[in-house]
Known about the structure:
mainly alpha, two-stranded antiparallel sheet, elongated, 2 strands
Amino acid sequence: xxxxxxxxxxxxDWEKVLKSALIFAGPALLVLIASVxxxxxxxxxxxxxxxxxxxxxxxxxxxxxxxxxxxxxDR
Length: 75
């Protein structure tokens, strides 16, 4: 069992943050693309991007402030 202590970020923590960031990038990019092709007003593109960045920051803080356990991978 791999343990990531509080106030410490291990490789597994960063992998989880990156995976989450990639998953939640889809809706923000969809709104951005829609505003570029004039389907949505340009002002609407900023809010999802800001919310996405806040989500990533919140995820990093959660991983940093909590103790997490991971199963060892076979890589």
